Q: What sequence folds into this?
């Protein structure tokens, strides 16, 4: 059986789209053994533990030191584990993958825009090495056509496989829970790119509508201050971190999912909401262009709270049309974004290229 070493900055219990993708994919591939090197964020985390089908090794230190710590750990493990290949999850993870000496696949999962990912002062000095890591990848996959262009700009000359994230249709399906009034919901890190501030501004244009926020992040204090300034704080419920396993329950209690992203590599939260049968309001920024259309969602331009308010009113005033759009969205997820399909494509189109 082949052995693959995964490089990922974070892993369970810290969960975003990339971490969900790793677990959903590895749980479905039975003929490869997976181990991972990730960061140990606090002393309470185990240095080694089994999570699903992945044996997780955690290294300590600040984030910027991770590529070096992960490389050293990988070389130590390789002496007795004898891995066949590596898998780097997100752009920066290409660095330890390059340095560990194994053939590797790179998956582009980045959600921020290109300038943010590659243009920050502490990243610029390492761009030549990062370009080399892109160029030397045995295989590259990207969540969207938007991210596939990054690989080409960074010097990768091979075929970039478009393998999106997905949703577990069975897990997210279910009946809507009856409740009073109208509830908007988002599942987002509370950072500028996810534009939760625009939802709060739209809420000021929508009397008697409530908003549930599932997520935490550095902008939480500023967002709560904005809600107080606009007089909508009493209509917002801040749920904090919500485990992905509990997210379907929250979605079934809501009427409309919304995340008017300023940038997005793909956006796993959108397909999860579609699978749950919740109308989706979203921008078409970055990778969202691949699937957010008026056929399956209610598109808005970024930084336009007025458009958000208008689309919410359109959903509420046209229940039959809304039902048809939601049904098309659920079919789209089942036919194109089911995790079984995603795992198959990763195995056949990406990992298979590591073992030739």
A:
């Amino acid at each position: 059986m082949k052995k693959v070493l995964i490089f990922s900055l974070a892993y369970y219990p810290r969960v975003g789209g990339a971490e969900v993708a790793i677990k959903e994919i590895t749980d479905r591939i039975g003929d490869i053994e997976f181990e991972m090197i990730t960061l140990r964020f606090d002393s309470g985390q185990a240095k080694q533990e089994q999570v699903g089908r992945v044996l997780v090794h955690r290294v300590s230190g600040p984030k910027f030191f991770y590529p070096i710590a992960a490389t050293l750990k990988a070389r130590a493990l390789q002496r007795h584990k004898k891995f066949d290949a590596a898998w780097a999850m997100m752009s920066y993870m290409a660095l330890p993958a390059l340095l560990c000496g194994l053939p590797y696949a790179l998956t582009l999962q980045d959600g921020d825009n290109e300038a943010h990912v590659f243009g920050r002062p502490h990243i610029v000095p390492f761009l030549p090495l990062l370009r080399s890591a892109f160029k030397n990848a045995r295989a590259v996959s990207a969540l969207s056509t938007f991210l596939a262009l990054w690989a080409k700009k960074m010097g990768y000359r091979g075929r970039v496989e478009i393998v999106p994230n997905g949703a577990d249709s069975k897990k997210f399906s279910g009946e809507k829970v009856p409740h009073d009034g109208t509830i908007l919901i988002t599942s987002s890190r509370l950072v500028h790119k996810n534009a939760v501030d625009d939802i709060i501004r739209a809420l000021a244009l929508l009397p008697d509508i409530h908003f549930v926020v599932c997520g935490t992040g550095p902008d939480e204090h500023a967002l709560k201050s904005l809600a107080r300034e606009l007089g909508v704080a009493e209509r917002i419920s801040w749920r904090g971190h919500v485990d992905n396993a509990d997210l379907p329950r929250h979605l079934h209690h809501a009427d409309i999912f919304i995340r008017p992203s300023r940038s997005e590599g793909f956006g796993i939260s959108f397909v999860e909401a579609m699978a749950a049968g919740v109308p989706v309001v979203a921008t078409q920024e970055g990778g969202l262009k691949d699937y957010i259309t008026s056929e399956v969602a209610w598109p808005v331009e970024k930084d336009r709270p007025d458009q958000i308010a208008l689309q919410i009113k359109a959903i509420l005033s046209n229940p039959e049309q809304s039902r048809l759009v939601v049904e098309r969205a659920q079919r789209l997820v089942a036919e194109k974004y089911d995790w079984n399909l995603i795992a198959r494509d990763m195995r056949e189109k990406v990992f298979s290229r590591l073992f030739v």
